[in-house]
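ok new one. same drill as before - structure tokens go in, u give me an amino acid for every spot. 147 of them this time. try not to just spam alanines like last time pls lmao
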């Protein structure tokens, strides 16, 4: 009985600390098991999907999971804002203009400065999933075709 009362007191104390922390920051924890994450069509690329985790890619800073199909290629392009990317699954071949191609597997990280031209390709065999964080709205500016 005494152990149960002590456990109840400890849990109550933990809840009070949690509520106090929430009151001080105004933020609550966010927990999304994979099956609860909402994927939508990515307007930037046919067949690609995205799951916005925070922010709004249409208007400002955001973090999102993104996916594109195995064998897909994104032609030479850039983005207005810096991007931070972490590969989650699949094999992405990233080529920064003027540099050799690099293969990114799960856990790989890349920082792409705003305006830096690059291509991306998802290897055949499995779709590519990655996390992307950007401090400005999402955009994609394809290089002008050469004549």
């Amino acid at each position: 009985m005494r152990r149960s009362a002590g456990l109840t007191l400890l849990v109550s104390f933990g809840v009070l600390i949690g509520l106090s922390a929430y009151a001080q920051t105004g933020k609550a924890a966010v927990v999304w098991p994979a099956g609860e994450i909402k994927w939508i069509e990515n307007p930037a690329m046919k067949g690609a999907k995205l799951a916005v985790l925070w922010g709004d890619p249409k208007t400002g800073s955001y973090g999102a999971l993104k996916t594109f199909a195995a064998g897909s290629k994104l032609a030479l392009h850039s983005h207005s804002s810096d991007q931070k990317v972490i590969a989650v699954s699949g094999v992405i071949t990233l080529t920064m203009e003027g540099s050799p191609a690099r293969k990114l597997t799960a856990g790989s990280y890349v920082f792409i400065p705003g305006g830096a031209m690059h291509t991306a390709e998802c290897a055949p065999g499995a779709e590519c999933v990655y996390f992307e964080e950007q401090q400005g709205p999402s955009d994609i500016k394809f290089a002008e075709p050469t004549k």
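The longest strand covers residues 49-55. and btw The radius of gyration is 21 Å.
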